[in-house]
C-alpha cells in the first residue's frame, strides 16, 4: 500500500486524561477509510488531529508525527490555513453558514481571492453535482442554505468542502443526524467520488462502514485494535475485541 | 387541593405585579404624551428656543441631540467592536482578560453624573476644550462604551462554535472566520444593541450638563463649514441637547410658556426613544431575515 497519510505513535491528552494511546495508522491516496468503535474510543479525536482541529482546544497536548503527502503537518513551518484547504472536514451536525446556497459553496474560494464569476459558477455547479444535491437546489441557489432540509444541508456542506478541491476529506459521523434516505444519498455520493479523494469517515453505523469503505480501523479505549481491508476486518477479524464489537456483543 | 390553591394564588399575584408594571409605564407615557403632544408643531420642532419670551422651539436642541448621538456612535462603535471581538474570540483566560472585564463592569456602573463631572474636569477644564460637542461626545462614549462592548461580545458569543469550526476547517484564517462568518451572523444582535444604546444616549442629561454645556448658541443652518463657530457641524461650540433643555427649563426657565415647552420637549424625547426601541427590534429582525433568508 502506498501511504498518503502516515500517523506514528500519536498520543493525545485532554489535560491529564490520555485519549489516544499511541496510534500508528496509515491511509492510501484514494478510497474510503472507515474509523469505527464505541463512543469515547477516540476515533473522532483521532480524525481531528488530521486537520489540526484539536489545536483549538487549549487543554489538548499531542505527541507523535503525522505526515500527509510527505509533509509533517505538525512541523512549526506548517500553515494550518493551507493544511485545512488540503484537508477538508464535514461535521456531525450540518453547519452551513446562514447565507445563500451559492455563497456557502463559494465561500472558501472567494476568501481565497477568486473573483472570476464564471469560474465560481462552474465550481458551484460541479461541487453541488458531485455532492448529489444539484438537482434539488439548482433553481434556488440564492435561497438561504438554512431553508433546506437537514440532509440537503449536509450535502451542501460537503459541496462546500469539495469546492476548494482538497486532497483529503474527513467526515465526522456525517449521517448520524440524518434520516435513512438522506444517509443513503450521502453514501452513494461518497462511492462516486472515492477514486478522487482520500476519504476518512468516522461512523457508528457498522453497516455503513461495511457497505462503503475499502479499509476499516477499529478503535477501543484510545487504542487502535485492528486495521485492514474492510472485508477481512468484518469477516475474519484477528482480534477477539473486534469480533465482539462487530457481532454486537458490546458497544 | 391545597397545592392547587397555592398555585392559583401565586399565579394571581404574579399577574397582578406584571399588570402593575405595564400600568405604571402606560400611565407615565400617557401623561407625558397627552400633556406634550398638543404643543408639538412644525414651528416648535424647528424654531430656536427663547429665554425670556414665549413661542420658542427646540430646533437647535433637537439637532444637537442627533449630532451628539452620531458623534458618540462614530467614536464608541469602532472601539467597542474591537474590544468585543477581542473578548469573545481571542481573549485567553488570564488576569489581563479578567481585568478588562472588571474594568468594563465598573465603567458600566458609574453614575452618569460622575462621568459628566469627570469629563468636565478632564476635557472641559484640563484639556481646555470648553463646553463643547466634542467634550460631550467623549463623555457619552464613556457612558456608552461598556454597554456596547458587552452587547457585541454577547452577540458574537451567541454564534455557535460549529460555525467557527466550519470556517476554520474550510481553510479560513481565524481573522477571516471572525470577520466573514461570525460577525455577519452576529450583526442583527449587534445592530439591535447599538440602536437600543442610541436610545439611552439620546435621553442622557446628567453626563452632558457639565460637558456639552447648557446653552444653545444660535447656529446658522446655512453654514456647513465645520470650522466656523456658527456652523451646526462645529465641534467646539457648546450644545444643549433636548434632555438637558428639559432639565434646564424646569430648574431655571423664566419664559412665560416654560411648562408648555417642557411638556412638548418631553413628549418629543419620549417619542424619539420609543422610535429607537421599536426600530431596534424591526431592524434586527429584518437584518436577520435578510442574512439568513428565512421567512
TrEMBL record, chain A:
Question: GO molecular-function annotation terms?
Answer: ATP binding; ATP hydrolysis activity; phosphate transmembrane transporter activity
The residue ranges of the ABC transporter domain are 5-246
InterPro entries tied to this protein = AAA+_ATPase, ABC_transporter-like_ATP-bd, ABC_transporter-like_CS, P-loop_NTPase, PstB-like
Q: Which GO terms describe its cellular component?
A: membrane
According to its UniProt entry, the protein's GO biological process terms are:
phosphate ion transmembrane transport
Q: Which Pfam families match?
A: ABC_tran
- Protein name (Swiss-Prot/TrEMBL): Phosphate ABC transporter ATP-binding protein
Lineage summary? Bacteria, Bacillati, Bacillota, Bacilli, Lactobacillales
Automatic annotation (TrEMBL), chain B:
| UniProt entry keywords in alphabetical sequence | Cell membrane, Membrane, Transmembrane, Transmembrane helix, Transport
Query: What InterPro entries does this protein map onto?
Result: MetI-like (IPR000515), MetI-like_sf (IPR035906), Phosphate_PstA (IPR005672)
Cellular component aspect of the GO annotation: plasma membrane
Q: Which GO terms describe its biological process?
A: phosphate ion transmembrane transport
What residues form the membrane-spanning segments?
12-34, 66-90, 102-123, 129-148, 258-280
Cited CDD domains: TM_PBP2
Supply the PROSITE patterns for this chain.
Answer: ABC_TM1 (PS50928)
UniProt keyword annotation of Cell membrane present = yes
Keyword Transport on entry: yes
All residue ranges annotated as the ABC transmembrane type-1 domain in the record: 62-280
Query: Pfam families annotated for this entry?
Result: BPD_transp_1
Its membrane topology is listed as: Multi-pass membrane protein
Query: Where does the UniProt annotation locate this protein?
Result: Cell membrane
One annotated GO molecular function is: phosphate transmembrane transporter activity
Q: What is its main location?
A: membrane
Q: Which Gene3D superfamilies match?
A: MetI-like (1.10.3720.10)
Q: Which family does it belong to?
A: Belongs to the binding-protein-dependent transport system permease family. CysTW subfamily.
Query: What name goes with this protein?
Result: Phosphate transport system permease protein PstA
Lineage, highest ranks first: Bacteria, Bacillati, Bacillota, Bacilli, Lactobacillales
Amino acid at each position: 500500500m502506498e501511504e498518503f497519510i502516515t500517523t506514528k505513535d500519536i498520543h493525545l491528552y485532554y489535560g491529564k486524561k490520555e485519549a489516544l494511546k499511541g496510534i500508528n495508522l496509515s491511509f492510501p491516496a484514494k478510497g474510503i477509510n472507515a474509523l469505527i468503535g464505541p463512543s469515547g474510543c477516540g476515533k473522532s479525536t483521532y480524525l481531528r488531529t488530521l486537520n489540526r482541529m484539536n489545536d483549538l482546544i487549549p487543554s489538548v497536548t499531542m505527541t507523535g508525527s503525522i505526515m500527509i503527502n510527505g509533509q509533517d503537518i505538525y512541523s512549526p513551518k506548517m500553515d494550518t490555513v493551507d493544511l485545512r484547504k488540503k484537508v477538508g472536514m464535514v461535521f456531525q451536525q450540518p453547519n452551513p453558514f446562514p447565507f445563500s446556497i451559492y455563497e456557502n459553496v463559494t465561500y472558501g474560494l472567494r476568501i481565497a481571492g477568486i473573483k472570476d464569476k464564471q469560474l465560481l459558477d462552474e465550481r458551484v455547479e460541479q461541487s453541488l453535482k458531485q455532492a448529489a444535491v444539484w438537482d434539488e437546489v439548482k433553481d434556488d441557489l440564492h435561497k438561504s442554505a438554512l431553508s433546506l432540509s437537514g440532509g440537503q444541508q449536509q450535502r451542501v456542506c460537503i459541496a462546500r468542502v469539495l469546492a476548494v478541491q482538497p486532497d483529503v476529506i474527513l467526515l465526522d459521523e456525517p449521517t448520524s443526524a440524518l434520516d435513512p434516505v438522506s444517509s443513503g444519498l450521502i453514501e452513494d455520493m461518497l462511492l462516486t467520488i472515492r477514486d478522487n479523494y482520500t476519504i476518512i469517515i468516522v461512523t457508528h453505523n457498522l453497516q455503513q462502514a461495511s457497505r462503503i469503505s475499502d479499509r476499516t480501523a477499529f478503535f477501543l479505549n484510545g487504542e487502535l485494535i485492528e486495521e485492514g481491508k474492510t472485508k477481512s476486518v468484518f469477516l475474519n477479524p484477528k482480534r477477539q475485541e473486534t469480533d465482539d464489537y462487530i457481532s454486537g456483543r458490546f458497544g | 387541593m391545597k397545592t392547587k390553591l397555592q398555585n392559583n394564588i401565586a399565579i394571581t399575584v404574579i399577574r397582578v405585579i406584571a399588570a402593575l408594571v405595564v400600568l405604571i409605564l402606560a400611565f407615565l407615557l400617557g401623561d407625558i404624551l397627552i400633556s406634550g403632544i398638543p404643543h408639538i408643531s412644525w414651528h416648535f420642532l424647528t424654531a430656536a428656543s427663547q429665554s425670556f419670551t414665549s413661542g420658542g422651539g427646540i430646533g437647535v436642541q433637537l439637532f444637537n441631540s442627533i449630532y451628539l448621538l452620531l458623534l458618540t456612535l462614530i467614536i464608541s462603535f469602532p472601539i467597542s467592536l474591537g474590544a468585543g471581538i477581542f473578548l469573545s474570540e481571542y481573549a485567553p483566560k488570564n488576569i489581563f482578560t479578567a481585568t478588562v472585564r472588571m474594568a468594563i463592569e465598573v465603567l458600566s456602573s458609574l453614575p452618569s453624573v460622575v462621568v459628566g463631572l469627570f469629563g468636565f474636569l478632564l476635557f472641559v477644564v484640563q484639556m481646555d476644550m470648553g463646553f463643547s460637542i466634542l467634550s460631550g461626545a467623549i463623555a457619552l462614549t464613556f457612558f456608552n462604551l461598556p454597554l456596547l462592548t458587552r452587547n457585541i461580545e454577547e452577540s458574537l458569543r451567541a454564534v455557535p462554535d460549529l460555525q467557527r469550526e466550519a470556517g476554520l476547517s474550510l481553510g479560513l484564517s481565524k481573522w477571516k472566520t471572525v470577520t466573514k462568518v461570525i460577525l455577519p451572523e452576529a450583526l442583527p444582535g449587534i445592530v439591535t444593541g447599538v440602536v437600543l444604546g442610541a436610545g439611552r444616549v439620546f435621553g442622557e442629561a446628567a453626563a452632558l450638563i457639565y460637558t456639552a454645556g447648557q446653552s444653545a448658541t444660535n447656529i446658522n443652518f446655512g453654514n456647513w463649514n465645520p470650522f466656523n463657530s456658527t456652523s451646526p457641524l462645529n465641534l467646539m461650540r457648546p450644545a444643549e441637547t433636548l434632555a438637558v433643555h428639559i432639565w434646564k427649563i424646569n430648574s431655571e426657565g423664566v419664559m412665560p410658556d416654560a411648562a408648555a415647552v417642557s411638556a412638548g420637549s418631553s413628549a418629543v424625547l419620549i417619542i424619539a426613544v420609543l422610535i429607537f426601541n421599536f426600530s431596534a427590534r424591526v431592524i434586527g429582525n429584518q437584518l436577520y431575515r435578510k442574512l439568513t433568508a428565512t421567512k
